[in-house]
Amino acid sequence: MKKKLNIAILGAGESGVGTALLAKAKGYTVFVSDKGKIKEKYKNVLINNSIDWEEEAHTAAKILSADVVMKSPGIPDSIPLVKVLKMQNVPVISEIEFAAQFTKATIVGITGSNGKTTTAALTHHILKQELNVGLAGNIGDSFAKQILEHDFENYVLEISSFQLDGIVGFKPEIAVLTNITPDHLDRYEYQFEKYIESKFRIALNQTKDDYLIYDADDEVIVNWLKNNTIESQLVPFSLTKKQENGAYLDKDNIVITIDNDKIIMPSNNLTLEGKHNVKNAMAASTVAHLLKIRKQTIRESLENFQGVEHRLEFVLKINKVQYINDSKATNVNATYYALESMETPTVWIVGGTDKGNQYKELFQFINEKVKAIICLGVDNTKLMENFGGMVDIITETQSMSEAVKMAYKLAESGDSVLLSPACASFDLFESYEDRGRQFKDAVRNL
Question: Which residues are annotated as a binding site?
Answer without folding.
Answer: 112-118
